[in-house]
């Protein structure tokens, strides 16, 4: 009994010490919110050197945190708790966050580098006039494949190629309802924002007919599998494809001509911000031509920053696979905010499709 | 049975149970009756009784059953042999240590082990067989889950075997029982409680596995856990997510009743 009491006391003491240490660390982080900002970003989505450079230039310390889905990010911001100053949601999430009044308006006069951004990417439907968001990166959804492992006639310029019988048990899909259902709708020549129950049903049936070809539906784990030649064909985002192609030169990427998704990730300043000036300074710093070029080199997604593109390797920006021409871009669609009811339906149909894989 | 003092000392536990057991379950039941707009509805329950979710419940059950069965088949003899060894607690320790490693790390390790160029395939090729993708199959899913649950099954069985009075075994042998009869009529019935708690700690979590279904089974196995995760994080339909959780709780209560010890105890 005595040793039990002693053990219990020891555990309590250790807990108290850890709690104290955590409290110390946290208060050091948020104390004097004028010289720190908290940036909430996707994983592997910024060149860490730039964060140090920013601190050197401005004296503002950066606390950097990452999330792995738009929804998880929104939930954390809604709950408050952490004082996030800058976050990077995708376009449909910007729209939802505006609706839910989670964002602060952005003061364009504090962002002189905004002039660097290609006007094509400004003033888009999800945030007219860029009142709440500034474009960070953009990209598409397409098919990354290994030409040495698939038959020659498969170029994936059409979604139909995924249904080719030679690909039995070879196709990987990304675990996202919008991406996969969108692919199903696109392959029927329909909009990936359809709100038509019959069309969704049709798309699901079309997807179910793909199930013999499906090897797995996974997340970021697809990257190492493609790099090691363990996977042959995968539906994925352009930036992820760029990462894979960087490591494995055999790989190729195509955006099917029937259309696909065009997406944007954007800087926003959440309502939780404690240092709004610092947040503006950070966004402006990231929009700087040189910094943006350096960041783009590291991250590998497509940049909307014209001035940065002028500084980059022409081979990169002339690569139509990642910088599609405007003509092709016009065939691509941006995800609309479907609303929770339809988002739920997309997920139900996606679930039905997943169930058919067994 | 309790005097006043012991009733008083039970107070913190009552509070604990009220806040951390009863309140969360009540909240789940409450949320399960709300639709997306927060209106009261039974539609979530209706939706659960559609083929998609019923099939999912059945497959979850089937896989949890297989996982528990294989875990038991491996864990019982292991625990039995362990009690016969000289340094049994050291051996038990060695078996338990891997469970200190984070579940996710172990799962990721299996992606490498089962990969096309991983050690398992290298081994298969030694025998002149063609390498194949072991990942993303039913087999790999069950294998990894069994591997993860084995220590949890071994501990309770080991404990009950360890407490077994050896004179009972000797008596059975003296009275002419064969090894098998001794096991069937004496050892197994006396350690059945350990087996039951082992089944509880394996079957119930196995019903709601979700990380492994994606990483190892590539979403080709969908369990109720996967569906709950999706409802909460992606669809943001807390109502439907809670409804599935309610059914999970019901299933768990049934399992507890079926495997519960009759004379007092933990049931």
From TrEMBL, chain A:
Q: Which UniProt keywords apply?
A: Periplasm, Signal, Transport
Subcellular location(s) of the protein: Periplasm
UniProt: spermidine binding residues: 44, 92
InterPro entries, alphabetically? SBP, Sperm_putr-bd
A cellular component term from Gene Ontology for this protein is:
periplasmic space
Membrane-spanning residues where? none
The answer to whether UniProt assigns keyword Signal to this entry is yes
Q: Name one GO biological process term.
A: polyamine transport
Q: Does the keyword ATP-binding apply?
A: no
Q: Name one GO molecular function term.
A: polyamine binding
Would you tell me the protein name for this molecule? Extracellular solute-binding protein
Automatic annotation (TrEMBL), chain B:
**Which first-to-last residue range defines the signal peptide?**
none
What topology does it adopt in the membrane? Answer: Multi-pass membrane protein
Q: Name one GO cellular component term.
A: plasma membrane
List, alphabetically, the InterPro entries matched.
Answer: MetI-like, MetI-like_sf
Chain segments annotated as transmembrane: 12-33, 61-83, 90-114, 134-158, 198-217, 237-258
Q: Which residues form the ABC transmembrane type-1 domain?
A: 57-259
What Pfam families does the record point to?
A: BPD_transp_1
Query: Which taxonomic lineage is given here?
Result: Bacteria, Bacillati, Bacillota, Bacilli, Bacillales
Task: Name the UniProt key words of this record, in alphabetical order.
Answer: Cell membrane, Membrane, Transmembrane, Transmembrane helix, Transport
Per the record, the similarity remark reads: Belongs to the binding-protein-dependent transport system permease family. CysTW subfamily.
Q: What's the protein name?
A: ABC transporter permease
Domain of life the protein comes from: Bacteria
Indicate where this protein is primarily found: membrane
């Amino acid at each position: 009994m005595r040793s039990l009491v002693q053990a219990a006391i020891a555990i309590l003491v250790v807990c108290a010490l850890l709690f104290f240490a955590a409290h110390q660390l946290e208060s050091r982080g948020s104390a004097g919110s004028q010289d720190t900002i908290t940036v909430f970003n996707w994983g592997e989505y910024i060149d860490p050197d730039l964060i140090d450079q920013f601190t050197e230039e401005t004296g503002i310390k950066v606390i950097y945190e990452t999330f792995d889905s738009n929804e998880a990010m929104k939930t954390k911001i809604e709950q408050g708790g952490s004082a996030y100053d800058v976050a990077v949601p995708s376009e449909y999430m910007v729209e939802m966050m505006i609706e839910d009044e989670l964002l602060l308006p952005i003061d364009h006069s504090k962002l002189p580098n905004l002039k660097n951004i290609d006007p094509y990417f400004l003033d888009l439907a999800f945030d007219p006039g860029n009142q709440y968001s500034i474009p960070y990166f953009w990209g598409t959804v397409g098919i990354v494949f290994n030409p040495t492992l698939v038959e020659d006639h498969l170029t994936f310029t059409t979604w139909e190629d995924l249904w080719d019988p030679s690909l039995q048990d070879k196709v990987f899909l990304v675990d996202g309802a919008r991406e996969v259902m969108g692919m199903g709708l696109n392959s029927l020549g329909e909009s990936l924002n359809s709100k038509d129950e019959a069309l969704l049903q049709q798309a699901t049936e079309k997807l179910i007919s793909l199930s013999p070809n499906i090897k797995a539906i996974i997340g970021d784990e697809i990257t190492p599998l493609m790099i090691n030649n363990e996977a042959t064909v995968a539906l994925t985002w352009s930036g992820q494809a760029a990462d894979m192609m960087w490591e494995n030169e055999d790989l190729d990427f195509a955006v099917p001509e029937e259309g696909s998704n065009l997406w944007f990730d954007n800087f926003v300043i959440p309502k939780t911000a404690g240092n709004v000036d610092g947040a503006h300074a950070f966004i402006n710093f990231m929009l700087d031509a040189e910094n943006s070029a350096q960041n783009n080199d590291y991250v590998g997604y497509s940049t909307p920053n014209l001035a940065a593109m002028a500084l980059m390797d022409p081979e990169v920006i002339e690569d139509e696979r990642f910088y599609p021409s405007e003509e092709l871009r016009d065939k691509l669609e941006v995800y609309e905010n479907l609303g929770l009811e339809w988002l739920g339906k997309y997920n139900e149909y996606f679930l039905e499709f997943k169930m058919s894989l067994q | 049975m309790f005097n006043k003092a012991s009733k008083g000392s039970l107070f913190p536990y009552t509070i604990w149970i009220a806040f951390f057991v009863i309140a969360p379950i009540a909240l789940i039941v409450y949320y399960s009756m709300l639709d997306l707009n927060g209106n009261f509805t039974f539609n979530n329950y209706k939706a659960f009784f559609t083929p998609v979710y019923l099939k999912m419940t059945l497959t979850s059950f089937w896989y949890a059953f297989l996982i528990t069965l294989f875990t038991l088949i491996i864990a019982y003899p292991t625990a039995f042999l362990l009690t016969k060894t000289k340094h049994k607690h050291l051996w038990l320790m060695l078996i338990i240590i891997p469970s200190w490693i984070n579940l996710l790390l172990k799962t990721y390790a299996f992606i490498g082990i089962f990969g096309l160029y991983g050690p398992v395939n290298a081994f298969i090729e030694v025998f002149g067989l063609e390498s194949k993708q072991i990942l993303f199959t039913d087999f790999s899913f069950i294998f990894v889950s069994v591997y993860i649950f084995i220590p949890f099954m071994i501990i309770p069985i080991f404990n009950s075997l360890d407490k077994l009075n050896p004179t009972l075994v000797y008596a059975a042998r003296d009275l002419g029982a064969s090894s098998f009869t001794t096991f069937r009529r004496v050892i197994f019935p006396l350690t059945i409680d350990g087996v039951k708690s082992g089944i509880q700690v394996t079957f119930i979590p196995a019903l709601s596995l979700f990380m492994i279904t994606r990483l190892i089974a590539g979403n080709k196995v969908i369990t109720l856990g996967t569906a709950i995760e999706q409802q909460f994080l992606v669809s943001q339909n807390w109502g439907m997510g809670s409804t599935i959780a309610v059914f999970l709780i019901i299933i768990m209560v049934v399992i507890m009743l079926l495997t519960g010890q009759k004379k007092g105890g933990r049931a």
